[in-house]
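Lecture 7 notes: from sequence to structure.
We start with the chain below.
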Amino acid sequence: MLPAQPARVVATALVLLCSVAAVVAPSARAAEAVVTVADQEGRPVANAVVMLEPAGGQGVGAWQAPPAVMRQQGVLFDPFVLPVLAGTKVSFPNLDDIRHHVYSFSPARRFELRLYGKDETKTEVFDKAGVVALGCNIHDNMLSYILVTAHPVYAVTDDAGVARFAGLPAGAWATYTWHPDLAGDRGERAGPPLELAEADSRELAVAVDLRASRRAQRSPREGAYH
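Predicted structure tokens for the same chain:
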């Protein structure tokens, strides 16, 4: 038989192990989803926002929103498309050696961040769902979009048209997709449903119709801005 003191140590260790297991277990059961977006010609679509809505009240689990940051760097906005949840404060750091004047005339959020320089950061709260097109009052080549959404889970597709989601709880999910060049109106499109089981990994393909003429942010001409 163990002496009293070592027995208490062993008992304490067992309690700690059980506590750790209780914390780790839910994340071990989390599901993953990979959504691929293609256009009407079957080509991968970059910069599409894929949004998920829990259809069974399961919440968002361990999923975490990406940083709400819209950088100005190289006389460009980065990223080209930034999704945020309604009510989010977005940071606008200027990483260029020149000043920028960010603005939007979009109904979802009309605002302007007056001239500010290198290593300065301004912020703006986006509290109404909708599309916010951004420009710079000094540099006409700069263009980007903030999609303010009410859907709690979202990601942007990469150059291969892929959006990845980790840490999702099991359950039914409704899917939605948006892109600046969607044909017709600029609203989001409902996609096929997604069903996730515990520790599941699912792939989903989504097709969207895009305009023939695409919106784009252009790099400035060499020597255009100093």
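Points to note: The CA atoms of residues 34 and 164 lie 5 Å apart. The domain at 31-207 is CATH 2.60.40.420 (Immunoglobulin-like).
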